[in-house]
Structure formats: C-alpha cells, structure tokens
Design goal:
This protein is an alpha+beta fold. About 30% of the residues lie in helices and about 25% in strands.
Length: about 500
C-alpha cells in the first residue's frame, strides 16, 4: 500500500506557491505520487493600441480590431506536472513548480545531494516563487523578462550560499515560464528545455547550456565530435554553480490550442523515439505523467520531470490574434537577414520590433536624414524615391533600412506610404543589445548582412571601370578611412 502523502512544511500563507520535489519511494512523496494539476487558470487583459508604443513590444501585443474596437484577450491554462525518481537513485533531485496564482511554472534538475536539508532544486524554486510574488509589477508583460532574471539571480545567491555553507557543490538547472495575459515569458539556465507544440509541430524554444551544445554553437567542435566528447553532458551554466548566473529569456504569444512542455533531460531523451503529439493532444488524461512514465521506461538511469501547459482562448479573439502573429512571423521569414533563424530566434527578433501604422502619403524615412531603424512591411504599400524619381514600390513582406542597423549614414532614399500601411520597426540599439546577448543569433544575422553587402559590391563593380575597382572596394569596406592599410 502506498504511504499516505504528507503535506509540505511551510508557513501558513494562502498565496504560497505549491511545488513538488520528488522523493525516494521508501518514504512518503510530497503532494502525492508526483502529480500537481491545476485547472482553469484564467488571466485576461486588454492590450494597448497597436500604434501606442506604450504596451508590450512585439506585433502580437496589440489587441485591437481593424475597425478600432478593443478585443478582450482571454486565456485559460490547464497545467499538470509529474516527476519520478530514476532507478537506483537514493532520492529524486528533480523538482517542479505549478503556481496558478502567479502564472508561474518551472522544472529543476539538481546535482545529487546527500546531505541534510532541502536539495538545490527545492531551494531554487522556493526563491524564484518568493521573488516573483514580491515584484510590484509582476502582471506587466513588459517587465516579465527582468522579473525572471532577478528571480533567477536571487535563487542563484541562495543555492550558491547553501553550497558554501555545506562545503559541497550545490547547483541546479532551472527552466521557468511566467504567463501574463496571453503572453508567456521563458527563463532558462542549464539543460532543461521548453518545447512549443503548435500547428502539429513541436519546436524547441531553449538552448542547452552544456559542453556538447555550446561547443557546436561556438564552432569549437562538429556535432559528431561534441557527441563523443567525455565532457559532452557537463553543464556550462547552472543556478548556484558560480556566484553569478547568466539567464536566457524569451517572450512568445500564446494562441488557442498551444501546448508548452517544460522538462528535464531525463524526460526529453525519449522524444526522438516516440511521437509526443498524441500525448500532448489529449490521448492521456495527464500528459505530464504519461511523458515521464514513458521516459523512465526508455531510460530509468535519471530522474524525469515534466510540466505541460495547455492553452485555451476565446475563438473570435483568436482568429484575429492568430492572423496577426502568423503575418508577423511570415514577414520576418521573408526578410533575407533573418532567413537562417530558428523559431526561437525569430521570436527573439520579433520581440524587438515596434508596430507602426501610417496613413497614405506619410513619409516614413526621408532621404538625407540619419537612419537608425529597420522596417518590415506587414501590409499596405510604400514608394521608394531618390530625389523626385520613384525607384521601387514595396508591399507586404518587403523591408528597407537594414543598413541602418550597422551605421548612422544618411538615408539614401525617401520612403512614403501610398496606402494605409502597417509596419514593424527595429532600432539599431535594440538590435545591437540582442547581438551582445546572443552571439549565435548575432553571427547568423551579421553573416547575412555581409552576404548582402557582397552582392551590392558586385553590382557596384559592374558600374566601375576595371582600373578603378580596388579603390572602389577600399572606399566601401576599409574601416581606416583614407589611410592605406599596407603603408609602413
């Protein structure tokens, strides 16, 4: 007979988050056999105007119909979590969090801990939930990434200090999602993962912080070499590993029918051997439990944990929202600069854009003015003029101003809307900040920019006599002005 579950010991706080830390089967398991299910998490908000510029960035953040009427974005989340101890392990060092009052969900995978007191995963979840609850602006989606970063930093201090006191390493991976309205913000450290299941596709939204994946991303090893490395699974980032922690964040729109899967490495190792779509689409009453049990059946050497979020939203609202999100993603896909990006990277780029709406005859940029933004046309029509001559007309999916991301040179043309037009605008400052935070994404975009400059240089060569080509190339590419780089 299964031992009767004990209630977790904590202060009498009606708003305290509820978590589950796995335990050995030889003692009672906190909060039952590993399940913690929450139904009907409702969170509604009225998003600000598309053109206000004061609401959350990202083209999906608008909730206004073309006729000008407000749309109430209603999101209902069904969340379930489950964890199991790996075979032969003295205790389950995984833990997860499902807190419907905060809209906060997380999974952690801690280093094995044999001493007394809470394990690293439990300490991290407690600190993160406490910090998020204490934030005065936790319902503001524009503040979510900062809130989660600060929460992870607070957890890092707690776990790192516990390890110093115990004289042994304390560390844990941590992957969290904070739901605000119809937006989810992800925060991630370690090799846990978040997957998005949408339109019958399962896409990974996080990068693993271990030697194998970091070495491939940074061009140190090939995928085959990294897989064979004895350090392949060694973590490069974890909460409590050092006195500071770098946190990846990402904001995505939530649509009706979306599923978010948060899981530790003990769970996602089986995803390439099964088809998870049936589980996530409701073939089992509790998809989190089903995934964990399948993972343990495939490989019981590690603890396994997952949390599954299912999104339900008002259908009339979602038709407009899905159209807006899909239009923005398709527009980004057609910009050559962003052609090589993964879905995670496209969402990271998309979150930098500010939606802009202009009427007919409105000058968007003027020839000769300093440029500092890239524009993408969502719908409508714009004319490009040099002087009084129209040189091009651009419609949905077109872009202009990409060179402004690299330099402050004056605009080479005037762009004016011919009809009511919706655009996305990205500033140079936001772009450079993203490149500094995400070197891999930055390298992809800058490589594309280099290719575009190379093609334009080829076009210039076609107009320059042979004897003048070297000088023309230097005048464009040399960062040293008029100095001769070969001069002694």
């Amino acid at each position: 007979m299964r031992p009767r579950p004990r209630r977790p010991r904590h202060r009498r706080d009606p708003h305290r988050r509820r978590w589950h830390a796995g335990a050995a089967r030889t003692r009672p398991i906190r909060r039952g056999p590993g399940r913690d299910t929450r139904r009907s998490h409702e969170n509604a908000h009225i998003a600000k105007l598309l053109t206000s510029g004061g609401g959350p960035r990202g083209p999906w953040s608008a909730s206004r119909d073309p006729d000008g009427s407000d749309i109430l974005a209603q999101v209902e989340i069904s969340a379930s979590g489950f964890t199991l101890r790996g075979a032969g392990r003295p205790r389950n060092d995984d833990a997860y969090l499902v807190d419907e009052s905060l809209g906060l969900f997380a999974v952690c995978d801690g280093l094995p801990h044999a001493g007394p007191g809470p394990a690293a995963a439990e300490r991290a979840l407690d600190a993160i939930a406490h910090h998020v609850r204490s934030e005065p602006h936790r319902d503001d989606a524009t503040e979510a990434a900062g809130i989660l970063r600060r929460a992870f930093e607070a957890a890092n201090e707690v776990v790192y200090a516990a390890g110093r006191r115990a004289g042994q390493p304390y560390a844990t991976t941590c992957t969290a999602v904070l739901v605000q309205g119809d937006t989810a913000t992800l925060a991630h450290v370690g090799n846990g993962r978040v997957y998005l299941f949408r339109n019958d596709r399962l896409d990974l939204l996080t990068d693993d912080h271990d030697y194998r994946h970091e070495a491939v991303r940074n061009g140190i090893l090939t995928p085959h070499q990294a897989l064979r490395s004895p350090f392949a699974r060694r973590l490069t980032r974890a909460v409590g590993m050092r006195d500071t922690v770098a946190v990846d964040t990402l904001r995505i729109p939530l649509l009706d029918g979306d599923r978010l899967l948060l899981c530790t490495d003990g769970t996602y190792g089986c995803l390439d051997r099964i088809d998870p779509r049936g589980l996530l689409l409701g073939a089992h009453a509790d998809p989190a439990e089903a995934l964990v049990r399948i993972a343990i059946e495939h490989d019981a050497s590690d603890d396994a944990t997952s949390v599954v979020l299912t999104v339900r939203a008002d259908a009339p609202d979602q038709r407009t929202r899905k159209t807006r999100v899909g239009l923005a993603l398709r527009a980004i896909e057609h910009v050559p600069l962003f052609a090589d990006l993964t879905l995670r990277e496209r969402y990271a780029i998309l979150d930098l854009f500010r939606p802009v709406t202009v009427g007919p005859g409105h000058p968007i940029v003027r020839q000769g003015d300093p440029g500092d933004s890239l524009y993408v046309v969502l719908d409508g029509l714009v004319d490009v003029r040099r002087g009084s001559k129209r040189v091009a007309s651009l419609g949905a999916g077109a872009h202009f101003g990409e060179m402004a991301l690299l330099s402050k040179r004056p605009r080479s043309a005037t762009v004016t809307s011919r009809a009511p037009t919706h655009l996305l605008e990205m500033s140079r400052r936001d772009f450079l900040d993203l490149v500094a935070r995400d070197a891999t994404l930055g390298a992809k975009v800058l490589w594309r920019l280099a290719q575009m400059l190379s093609l334009r240089l080829d076009d210039l060569y076609a107009l320059v006599p042979d004897e003048g080509r070297d000088t023309a190339a230097l005048s464009i590419l040399s960062p040293f002005g008029d100095d001769d780089p070969d001069a002694t």
